[in-house]
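Feature request, filed as a ticket because there's no other form

It would be nice if the structure record came with a short human-readable summary line next to the tokens. Right now we just get the raw output. Example of a typical job, pasted below so the devs can see what we mean:
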Amino acid sequence: MITIAPHSPFALTLTHPYMAAAGALGYGVHTANTVQRVAPAALITPSVTHTGRTPDGPNRMHEYRGGLWVGEPWHDPGVQWVGRRATPVWAQWDIPVIVSLAADDAHLHQAVRDLDQVEGIAAFELSITPLQTDLNELLARVRSACSLPLIVKLPLAHPSLLIPLVQQCNTHQVDAITLCGAPYVADGRYLSPALFPLTLYACQSIIPTTPMPVIACGGINDDASARAVREAGACAVQLGSVLLRDPDIIMRLQQE
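Raw output as currently delivered:
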């Protein structure tokens, strides 16, 4: 068992370390059977904004030898849909749901207030993209409206740029951090196993510097890479596109 925010009355407890990364399995409302088969320790939703965002055309995906370029945006139905349609479903699950919130939402503070302590939501993950040099004001506003566990997902960057942000997260009593989200390229995200060495390097560099739990994410594409970040000290691991290619990976890792 892994407990995030153990001193909070709403502590997030994971039965094992392997989570479904933001967007990997959608919102789970229409894919509940897939979620149950994959059996992640937690489901992280695609990033949501207060009013929602209408996609500019269909999602686009281009395959390259080194990975995938996935065109943005994710499906973002807004906070009202999440509260009305999704949370009643999540409240029936044994798998906790973490709602990802887009840090660039102009109404982020209101989105947090509307969803905080709604039954079916176990925690929030604040997705920071692109790299912001100062999180103090943003975190102060979110933390003031949020009583549930708060995880901050930092973008891929050199550890020297991430360490100050990690320190700001600690100052504002963030419960855990996620290293590192898939980088933006043009108007999409780049997903590739080639990102894994950078994720591992970030974990090895940053975990010894902070008391906060660290969750690894990015390029973790097989059993060996998942084990490697755990050995580097990550308390949990987010698995993304690999769940679509290899839906049994979590069950194997648990058995090991």
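Something like this underneath would help us a lot:
The chain has a mean pLDDT of 88.
The radius of gyration is 17 Å.
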